[in-house]
Design goal:
The complex is a heterodimer of chains A (about 230) and B (about 525).
Chain A (H helix, E strand, L loop, with lengths): L1 E10 L2 E11 L4 E6 L5 H9 L6 E6 L2 E2 L4 H6 L1 E4 L11 H11 L4 H14 L15 H13 L5 E5 L7 H16 L3 E5 L3 H7 L2 E6 L2 E7 H5 L4 H9 L1
Chain B lengths: L1 H17 L10 H33 L5 H29 L4 H5 L5 H35 L3 H33 L5 H21 L1 H10 L1 H10 L2 H10 L3 H31 L19 H14 L2 H7 L1 H15 L1 H15 L5 H13 L16 H6 L4 H30 L4 H28 L9 H6 L1 H28 L1 H32 L2
Helix pairs in contact in B: 1-5, 2-3, 2-5, 2-8, 3-5, 3-6, 3-7, 3-10, 5-6, 5-11, 6-11, 7-8, 7-13, 9-10, 10-11, 12-18, 14-18, 15-18, 16-18, 16-19, 16-21, 18-19, 18-22, 19-21, 19-22, 21-22
Classes of the chains: A alpha/beta (about 230), B mainly alpha (about 525).
Chain lengths: ~230, ~525
């Protein structure tokens, strides 16, 4: 689903991501862990087509994000760590805007908006301007907008930040459901307990370089993910 | 404490003009020189305008020995210009700063926060007042001769006039803050308040000649009034013309007013900085939403962006309103305009260039419609949305372009048609003139878009930065005026060689070629660059 090969991204002299390779298969929840400034967001943004990279190749469902960005973006969704949404729109207008961009017919979008907004208890606030939303509500709206077009691959940067416990629980369920349907999830997190319980595979990055990657068992063995992470990044 | 706050205010001002916002580094010497030269140019242009007004008044009053009256009237004028020019900026500086909560969370007296911010307002007002007052001093000196006493006092009084303007703008800003704290639709309120002040400014500007004539005709009655109800202004006039006692009384009066205003504003500062209007919650009613094409969805997004921002509407869309007002005014005053133009053109020996003058007038106003110029920067922190969606970057740019065209097409067509009707231009000339005016919108829209793609700024925290202070908007406006001038010159030369209809056709051709070239650049290079921003 997502194949990152020898990705390198430089910002001037600084190498943000250095020869990183990862392969995320359909049905996998893939966690991406690293300290602040390790290169997680740069990798995620490169995989989403937001950031041009210097070397390597990123394939989404076999298509190069560099060569066919629009086709790739049609089957993926991205949620950044701080989802800045169009504050001048209401929640429902924003969801309809996203639906129009992804060419979702009226019946399907209406059904999906109802399903996810009810799930996150956001239905009553959909007529409110986004500027009046709290951080958590914006996060929920961003999640709904990501799921609304039923993408095959969802890339998320710190998706649990700002969510209340119930919404976090719902999101975890949605992530698992998406993978059960044959989709894939690639997300970064600092919450190692979440990664340990939720992820099928995990990758640890330090200063732009991949330290380790594999199934949870392969990475942590008999230790906790926290101790492995600390050992690798110290 | 106060010193630290004032230093912070000064650092913010310095950063605004002399530091690159993206890199945080000082601007290059060339850039600083450029900014300073631009400021000097603007101040000189405005100074010359105010100097012209002062000359008209001085030539009538000084020979009659009405020096005090001259300074009193000009002082009043300086105060009026200062207040109209800075009342909304004052409101933003005092109440809409981004660090309100940060400062209030620290052990700082609200009075100190207020005084530090009033100091910034004072600096701006000092500059505004200097632009008006210094030409007045020069004009007076050229009529009455330069003497040390009045020159010294009038220069010192500039500092006091700026303080009085600060008092008045802070008080008005406070009233605006009080009013908007009770209004739910703040965007609409801001637009209405701004339009009232802008309307007042233009009313004053267009009535200036009549006003000066009225002042000269009724100088005795007005002088009597100033000596009575307007005695502080009369004291200003006395002081500026060399009477120290007058200067002292005016200064005392201003300082007392400042103290009262500062006390009132300090007492209400925390409430106004922390007020949150209880918004009525809109009720969501589930309904089936029609599916729209991607281009329509993007255009609607741009329209929502434009409509939600008073700053965007007032600064980049003011030309639209001016065009509509011009269209109505032209239709009402049609006959007078026709007679005046006919007389003017006959006198200069070019009776057939009316379409060219018409076109130039409309293009000059259309140059102030700058919707595309900040549109890329205004994506700001939302840029990730369009970049992560499956939309062609070209479609995103074209939506910005289409909004500009869509909003400008009717006002430009209305203004150009109105003037063609008023001047009773032949049908073919009218059609060509309107077509050339409409094509010009395309040209400006494309140029503004290209400028912003070339020089975007996504790191703003206040949208007035990309709308008011960034180079793409300034360059686009200057380009509009430059292009208008160039097209007028080309049209004039062509008219002498080949006649008026072919001349306007030449203008149409130039506009079309330039617009097509710019469109291709935006659709190709511009879209590629946008995708990599």
């Amino acid at each position: 689903m997502l194949n990152i090969s020898h990705l390198t991204k430089r910002f001037g002299e600084k190498v943000a991501v250095d020869d990183l390779s990862l392969h995320i298969k359909p049905g996998e929840i893939y966690g991406f862990i690293g300290h602040n400034g390790a290169g997680k967001t740069t990798t995620l943004k490169s995989a989403t087509g937001i950031l041009a990279f210097d070397e390597g190749e990123i394939l989404i469902n076999g298509m190069s994000i560099a060569e066919k960005p629009t086709a790739c973006k049609r089957i993926l969704a991205y949620i950044p760590d701080d989802p800045a949404l169009y504050e001048y729109m209401t929640g429902i207008k924003f969801l309809n805007f996203v639906s129009d961009i992804y060419d979702i017919d009226s019946d399907t979008r209406t059904a999906r908006i109802k399903k996810f907004a009810d799930l996150f208890e956001l239905t009553g606030d959909l007529a409110q301007p986004i500027s009046a939303y709290s951080h958590g509500m914006k996060q929920k709206l961003a999640i709904i907008s990501a799921w609304i077009h039923d993408p095959k691959l969802i890339i998320m940067d710190e998706p649990f930040v700002g969510l209340d416990p119930k919404a976090s629980h719902i999101l975890k369920g949605m992530m698992r459901e998406k993978c059960n349907e044959g989709g894939a999830i690639f997300f970064s997190t600092h919450v190692l307990e979440v990664a340990e319980k939720l992820c099928d595979k995990v990758a640890i990055i330090k200063e732009g370089k991949l330290q380790t990657a594999g199934t949870m068992e392969e990475v942590k063995g008999n230790e906790s993910l926290e101790s492995v992470f600390l050992e690798l990044v110290e | 404490m106060l010193k630290a706050l004032i230093k912070k205010e000064l650092a913010q001002l310095g950063n605004l003009y002399f530091r690159n916002r993206k890199t945080g580094k000082s601007r290059s010497k060339g850039a600083v020189i450029g900014i300073v030269l631009l400021m000097v140019f603007v101040f000189l242009s405005m100074g010359m305008m105010f100097g012209g007004t002062a000359t008209a008044l001085a030539s009538a009053l000084i020979p009659l020995g009405k020096d005090v009256f001259f300074f009193a009237i000009e002082g009043l004028f300086t105060i009026a210009v200062g207040v109209i020019g800075s009342v909304f900026m004052t409101h933003a500086i005092l109440y809409n700063a981004k660090d309100n909560e940060f400062l209030l969370s620290m052990p700082i007296e609200p009075r100190n926060i207020l005084i530090a911010r009033m100091f910034t307002v004072y600096l701006f007002n000092f500059i505004f007042c200097a632009v008006v007052w210094i030409p007045i001093i020069i004009v007076y000196g050229s009529f009455a001769g330069f003497r040390f006493d009045w020159l010294c006092l009038s220069i010192l009084l500039l500092f006091v006039i700026a303080l009085l303007v600060t008092v008045l703008t802070c008080f008005l800003g406070w009233l605006v803050a009080l009013a908007t704290s009770r209004i739910r639709n703040k965007s609409l309120a801001s637009v209405v308040f701004s339009l009232l002040f802008v309307g007042g400014y233009y009313f004053l500007y267009f009535k200036m000649n009549k006003l000066i004539t009225a002042i000269i005709d009724r100088s005795d009655a007005i002088e009597k009034g100033l000596r009575g109800w307007g005695w502080p202004i009369w004291q200003l006039g006395l002081g500026a013309s060399g009477k120290p006692q007058g200067a002292l009384i005016f200064t005392l009066f201003t300082v007392i007013l400042f103290a009262i205003t500062a006390a009132i504003l300090s007492a209400t500062l925390i409430r106004l900085l922390t007020v949150k209007t209880a918004a009525r919650k809109a009720v969501y009613r589930e309904r089936r939403s029609g599916q729209k094409a991607v281009s329509t969805a993007l255009l609607r997004k741009e329209l929502a962006r434009f409509g939600a921002s008073p700053t965007y509407i007032l600064n980049c869309g003011m030309g639209l309103l001016m065009l509509i007002v011009a269209a109505v005014a032209i239709l009402i005053k049609g006959e007078a305009i026709r007679n005046f133009m006919g007389m003017l053109l006959e006198r200069f020996g070019f009776p057939d260039i009316a379409p060219l003058l018409t076109l130039t007038a409309v293009l000059l106003i259309a140059s102030t419609v700058l919707i595309t110029a900040p549109s890329v920067s205004l994506e700001g922190k939302n840029l990730w949305l369009v970049q992560s969606m499956p939309v062609d970057p070209k479609s995103v740019l074209m939506a910005k372009l289409n909004l500009h065209m869509l909003l400008a097409i009717i006002p430009v067509a209305a203004a150009s048609s109105a003037i063609c009707i008023a001047l009773k231009l032949p049908f073919r000339q009218s059609v060509l003139t309107v077509a050339a005016a409409l094509l010009f919108i395309w040209l400006i829209a494309e140029f503004g878009l290209l400028m912003n793609v070339l020089k975007p700024n996504f790191d703003w925290t206040n949208e007035s930065v990309p709308i008011k202070q960034d180079l793409p908007v300034l360059f686009t406006m200057l380009f509009g005026w430059g292009a208008t001038l160039l097209l007028a010159v080309i049209g004039f030369l062509a008219h002498r060689a080949i006649g008026i209809i072919p001349a306007i056709t030449v203008i149409l051709g130039i506009e079309l070629i330039c617009s097509v070239i710019l469109h291709r650049v935006n659709a190709g290079f511009g879209a590629r660059r946008f995708s990599k921003l």
